[in-house]
Structures are given as structure tokens and as C-alpha cells.
Amino acid sequence: MSNLKLMILGYGRHGKDTVADYLKENYGLTHVSSSMFVLHEAVYPVLQPKYGYKSEEECFNDRHNHRAEWYDAISNYNQPNRAALATKLFESYDMYVGLRNADELDACINQGVFDYSIWVDATERLGHTEDTSSCTITRDMCDFKINNNITLYNTYVQLDYMMSLLS
Please, what CATH class does the domain formed by 6-166 belong to? Predict the structure, then answer.
């Protein structure tokens, strides 16, 4: 499984990190928060002067209040190569958790940067999606859909089945 490259996608707070943690613990796949990965190079230099953050940690902890600005900073980082961040991240990790830009996803697909994409959905349970100002990827763009609306156990069963198909 260590050569498998997965995109874990979905709206904010829908369980992407939970899915990645499960795949790490049970299948040995590695990951890092994409927000943490890009913080130093792309986000902090843009948002620190605007909001007066005292540290990268403070900026990171405030990211949910500025989702659209994070989205824009990452999009700008990925110019002119829309797959730049994903390519760099996959050099060290097996999973990219949290890509939000459909153009970047298309570039990654066209450049063969990853093997499969997984959409994690908790819309029924949480009652919300996400505005296109911070996420332009939709579930129909992904290879697999994980229903995270029922129980955590149900989510894990779906992941185990998906992984059985990929092995």
C-alpha cells in the first residue's frame, strides 16, 4: 500500500482527517495536514501582515475564520503549475488531505500525481456544505464516496471495503 497515492477530499469538518488517520493506522499510509504543509510557504507570509499574527501556529489555529483567504493563498502558490503543492506533498506523503480547488484537482489528474480520490461526506449529519469561495470540488469529481453520516464504525467499514478493492 505504500506506493498508493490518495486524495482525501470533502467539505470542512466532514471527517477528512478522521479518514486519513484511520488509513494511516490500519494501512500504513502517511499524511500531513495540507494546511500545515503549505502554511510556511504560501499562507503565513500573506496573512501575517493583514491580521498581525505573532506566529505560524496562531495563523494555523485561526484558519477556519479565513477559509477563502487560505484558498486564495494556496491557489496563488500553485501558479503557474496548478499541481505544484500536490506534487511536492506526494514526494513525502501517501495522502493529500484537503485539496479544495477543482482546477488544481484537474491538473493533478492530468499530470498523474495521485491514484484515487475519496470524497468524505457528512452533509446529512452536519447539515451544511461549503461555499465555493473556499471549495470548488464536488463529490461527483471523486473516485470513491465515503458516507460519514451514520456512525464512525460504518465509515470504517466503507474504508475497509474500498481498500480491499485497491489491494
Answer: alpha beta
